[in-house]
Design goal:
mainly alpha; Arc Repressor Mutant, subunit A; three-stranded antiparallel sheet; 3 strands; 65% helix; 7% strand
């Protein structure tokens, strides 16, 4: 249960920090470390590591279909990940609803099958259990850090 609370807290922090720039993130993390009596050197080092790896410097202008091609999407879960990547990297959304994911899936005509929508609940559950997506609210999802970093590297290489 403590692990669930920790993951939930991490999701809240990530969502809050994503729209901020590197300097703003550093100030927020430093303030939080001081407020919570955490060794500031650890927080600063961690913040510096996060800030040193901006693979993508700007929003990508890739469609969901293009992202699906880049990642080799061949299943419903793959197309959901492509849709989530489009929402995150192209539209700048940190979180997205089930409806937004379904809409983006439909926007990839060369990959979309209507059966994917019929199985959406099952696919989303599997992606959440596999820690590819994080459930951050009622039918609200975000890419996990691990998945976001992997996608970022693949999409940056395709630019």
């Amino acid at each position: 249960m403590a692990e669930d609370q920790e993951l939930q807290a991490m999701g809240v922090v990530l969502t809050a920090l994503q729209p901020l720039g590197p300097d703003e993130r550093k100030r927020v993390l430093t303030w939080a470390a001081q407020k919570l009596a955490i060794d500031a050197a650890v927080a600063t080092t961690t913040a510096a590591k996060v800030e040193q790896k901006p693979v993508l410097t700007a929003k990508l202008d890739f469609s969901t279909d293009t992202i699906a091609n880049i990642i080799g999407a061949s299943s419903g879960p793959d197309l959901i990940i492509a849709a989530a990547a489009h929402l995150h990297f192209a539209l700048g959304k940190a979180t997205f609803s089930r409806h937004e994911l379904a809409s983006q899936m439909r926007a990839a005509p060369s990959h979309f099958k209507s059966t994917f929508i019929n199985n959406l609940t099952s696919y989303l559950g599997g992606l959440t259990r596999a820690d590819r997506l994080r459930l951050s609210g009622n039918d609200i999802y975000a890419l996990s850090n691990k998945e976001r970093q992997a996608l970022e590297a693949r999409l940056a290489a395709a630019e």
